[in-house]
Amino acid sequence: MAETWLIAGLGNPGRQYEGTRHSIGQLVIDELVHRAGGRLTSTKARVVAAVERVGARGGVPGPRAVLVKPLTYMNVSGPPIAQLAKFYSVPPERVVAIHDDVDLPFEAIRLKLGGGEGGHNGLRSLTQALGTKDYLRLRAGVGRPPGRMDTADFVLQRFSAGEQQTLPIFVGELADALEELLADGLEATQQRWHSR
Description:
The chain has one domain (4-194): Rossmann fold, CATH 3.40.50. It has 6 helices and 7 strands. It has helices at residues 24-36, 78-87, 121-130, 151-155, 161-184, 186-194; strands at residues 4-9, 41-42, 47-53, 64-70, 95-101, 109-113, 136-141. Monomer. It is found in: Cytoplasm. TRNA binds at residues 17, 73, 75, 121.
C-alpha cells in the first residue's frame, strides 16, 4: 500500500482568526484541497480533513495525504492531529506541520525536519502529542512585529494591505513547496526554496 502523509495547517478556529498571520497554515490547506478538487469535512477528531492525492505530475496522481485543519485552538492542536495520524497509521516522519514563523521575513519559505519549537505553541503541542520533535515543518515567514508590539498580538493580526496583495501568490508557493516535498524529498525541496 502506498505511503500516506498527514499535512496539518496550524491556526486558530473561528472567523475572527481567518486570514491572520497565525493561521497561514490553514490557508495553505485550503489551497491544497482546492487543487485536489476535494472538500474538507468534520471528523470525530476535532478537525476538518480531506483525504486526497496531492501534487499530480504528468498525469500521474501524487501521494495520498490527509489534509487537516484542527478545530481546536493553536496551543492544544497537537492531540487531534496525533489522533488522526494514529488512525491513518502515519509515522511522525510523514507528518508535516505548516505554520507561521516570525523569525523569517514575509514570503520566505523554509523546510526542516525536527528541531525546536521557537516559542510556537502549536508546534509545542504537536511535539508533546506525537512524543517526538522528528516531524517535518513547512515554515511560512510572516515577518517580525514592528517596534515593541507583542509577538502574540502581531500574529493574531491580519496581513497588511500591501502583504494581502501578494498573499495569494505566497500561499500558492507554500502549496508548491509542500507538493515538491512529498514528491522529491526534503533535501531537494530545501535546495530549491531556500536559495530563491
